[in-house]
Write a structure and sequence with these properties.
Elements (H helix, E strand, L loop, with lengths): L7 H19 L32 H74 L5 H21 L2 E3 L12 E7 L9 E6 L2 E3 L2 E4 L1 E6 L2
Parallel strand pairs: 2-6
Antiparallel strand pairs: 1-4, 3-6, 4-5
């Protein structure tokens, strides 16, 4: 039987191959070895891993949590109360607005009724004048119409309505409307020499301006 002889060189070769296999598993020189498990990532300098420790609350901390919870519940209750108050206020204001609107309409109705009640006697006098006008003289008719006219002016005056002064007055564009300018040697320039349509004021506001003729300036 042949015996295999091993020389010293064979031992060296075998030893070198084993080292080479170890180096192949570890990777190139200078690089960290990769194990089968997860690779550890080094932390940046100055940072450390802080492990959170779970612990039970102390009695003081429990009391503080209870106080904060009670305060939160009170705030929620107060918020709900404010919301209800706002809703009631809005509803009350809407009811107030409606009452005021109804009151305003009623006031206008009553004011119109009072005005019409004052106009009815004038209408009665006009009807009487028409009934008695047949066969009457012109002077009596004029007198009756004049009486009705004055009665109507009295009603207007009670309501704050009065005529705008015009004839002989200096032209005022706020209350007068000039229809034309005329030559009139007997009147100063800018003076109203004729009133074509009477104007009226109501509580010192222009209800209708007077239409007038003005002397040339």
């Amino acid at each position: 039987m042949e015996e295999k002889l091993y020389s010293q060189e064979d031992d060296l070769d075998s030893h070198g191959q084993g080292e080479n296999k170890d180096h192949e598993q570890d990777g190139p020189p200078g690089e960290p070895s990769i194990d089968d498990g997860a690779m550890e990532v080094p932390l940046p300098p100055g940072e450390e891993v802080v492990e959170e420790e779970s612990r039970d609350l102390t009695e003081d901390e429990k009391d503080e949590v209870i106080v904060l919870r009670d305060a939160l519940e009170k705030e929620e209750a107060q918020k709900e109360e404010y919301l209800r108050l706002l809703q009631r206020t809005m509803a009350d204001f809407e009811n107030y607005r409606r009452r005021m609107e109804r009151g305003r309409r009623e006031t206008i109705k009553r004011a119109n009724e009072e005005l019409f009640l004052q106009l009815l006697p004038i209408l009665d006098n006009l009807e009487l004048a028409l009934q008695t006008g047949e066969g009457s003289s012109a002077d009596s008719i004029v007198e009756g119409v004049g009486m009705i006219y004055r009665q109507f002016l009295d009603v207007l005056a009670k309501e704050g309505v009065k005529p705008v002064p015009a004839l002989g007055e200096v032209f005022d564009p706020r209350v007068h409307e000039a229809v034309m300018q005329v030559d009139d040697t007997g009147a100063a320039a800018g003076t109203i020499v004729e009133e074509l349509k009477k104007g009226y004021l109501i509580h010192d506001r222009v209800l209708r301006p007077s239409m007038v003729k003005v002397a040339k300036m």
